[in-house]
Design brief:
This protein is of the alpha+beta class and 179 residues long. The chain contains three helices and twelve strands; from the N terminus they run βββββββαβββββαα.
Length: 179
């Protein structure tokens, strides 16, 4: 079997960051050659699609340094630790970023963002029966909450206005399952 023909010989931490760790992996490949591959370790994340009673979905608009622009996304955030239940993290991020709380969260989909070099896993939930509270933003977060219909968001995805992978996967999965 092909999977047994790859063997990691070494994983060396090159940089420890606040969100990710960067490693250099040394791997023996099926033809016997030894190669070096980049690996980014991530503790995992959770995301949520907040659904209002009128059917509109709450989205967050925020600045993303990696793209040097604002993006429109579903609320999401990293786990506080690799053992934190993703449903708890999704509920936390919902309230922190949107100022809404829900006890009605259902798992929708799990995605792996970039399997070629990163192990990031995001569990995505749907939140209904929203209760208004208030945002609890971090010092470096500046988030606007906006509401859209599923059709409006689908059009934005197909027009290239929403490119974030977790948001694209979440909206298209939600549309397929609930609409």
């Amino acid at each position: 079997m092909m999977e047994e023909e790859f063997k990691r010989l070494n994983r060396e931490l090159m940089y420890h960051g606040t969100i990710v760790d960067f490693y250099k992996d040394t791997v023996r490949v099926p033809n016997g050659n030894v190669v070096e591959w980049d690996f980014i370790g991530h503790k995992g994340a959770a995301a949520v699609i907040p659904v209002r009673e009128d059917g509109k979905l709450l989205m967050v608009r925020q600045y993303r340094n990696a793209l040097d622009r604002y993006t429109l996304e579903i609320p999401a955030g990293g786990l506080n630790g690799s053992d934190e239940p993703t449903k708890d993290a999704a509920a936390r991020e919902l309230e922190e970023e949107t100022g809404y709380y829900s006890e009605n969260l259902d798992w929708l989909i799990t995605i792996r963002t970039t399997v070629a070099f990163c192990n990031e896993k995001i569990d995505i939930y749907v939140a209904k029966d929203l209760i208004k509270t208030k945002q609890h933003l971090d010092e470096d977060e500046f988030i606007n909450v906006e509401a859209y219909s599923v059709d409006e968001l689908s059009r934005m995805i197909l027009d290239g206005k929403i490119e974030d992978s977790k948001t694209v996967a979440a909206i298209m999965s939600y549309k397929d399952k609930y609409c």
